[in-house]
Model the fold of this input.
Amino acid sequence: MKALMFGWEFPPHILGGLGTASYGLTRGMSIQNDLEITFAIPRARGDEDQSFLRIIGLNNIPIVWKDVKKELVEKRIGKTMSPKLYFDLQSHIYANFNYYPTNELGCLEFSGRYPSNLLEEINNYSIVAGVIARTVEIDVIHSHDWLTYPAGIYAKNVSGKPLVIHVHATDFDRSRGNVNPQVYSIEKDGMDHADHIITVSNQTRSTVIEKYHQNPAKVTTVHNAVEPLSAEIQAIQSQNHTPNRIITFLGRITMQKGPEYFVEAAACVLKKAPNVRFVMAGSGDMMNQMIHLASQRNISDKLYFTGFLKGQQVYEMLKSSDVYVMPSVSEPFGISPLEAMQCGVPSIISKQSGCSEILDKAIKVDYWDIEALADAMYSIVTYPSMYEYLKIEGKKEVDAITWEDAGLKVRRIYDKVLSKTNNQS
Done:
């Protein structure tokens, strides 16, 4: 079976959980020896791990025919794509796109991030997707997150192959209900055109059914998982060489993640346990607001802001922490608590997070209940037996949650939609 996946992030260039989930799922699916995955992203850089799938960067796909030599193609994009594939793609340009500003190879430029002209990049992505779908041999199309739903629809119309969309989050999660009509329209259009919808939690499944009016029979939950720790990460030692206990928030400092509840709870804990220090690791549009709130609560000297962390830095922070906290207001899943528990770090998560559906060895509180959150923080750093139990049993629980199992569930969905398509034809 050949699957064409459309994504927006892929390690090592990630800006959030979407890239981590895309990597984990595709790697978990790679144990299925009869499955080939082509994974398209806006911008390929050549340092992505392609040992278990093929990466295609949309920035290397021509939409305007140019009379170019193989040597120029090799020079410009040889590190990320073979010249043969470039010329195969060039022969499948399906319309006159000369009015688009392309480079000397006839390719569009993509930022590979979330730029101010994001809707324009989403539209450009769908145009390029049409060239891919006409060129690459595929059996099923799989679009990750709303950014690639238009590409999935376009590829389905071009190829006639079934479309599976993967809902990693909805705009109801990102906006606390203040939904952007354009984003909602793109999300619903993707769901309406999909042959099947995968959600990362039952919580998200309910949102898809109730808010986007989808048939429950068409929506299946496949919970996320976590990659096993490499020997390099396992060897990382704690950098905390002080007697202070460290409680960490690690993620985007945005409305969705509930950072203000972390700061308020930290102020409560410090009234009873002055030897605790707090870390807010990440970046986001509420960062300055959180710095100001910490100052208002008189805890600026005990709450540290690290900025955005990635790769090994994340695990260095986790391994230096005594407690991990994710007080998300609305979290479709939330992989970071699993990563923390993998490192033996007791975790506190909001009941409003998707991962709470599969985690029993973490403390769960309502995001808004600052007193309960503060009590949980204080208890873990104060009572050694509680700390040890959550550390040991939490790691055992998370080690049993694998991407291979998630990949097998996705494969069953592929088989189901293909069987249905074949029966209809």
Summary: The chain has 16 helices and 13 strands. The mean pLDDT is 95.
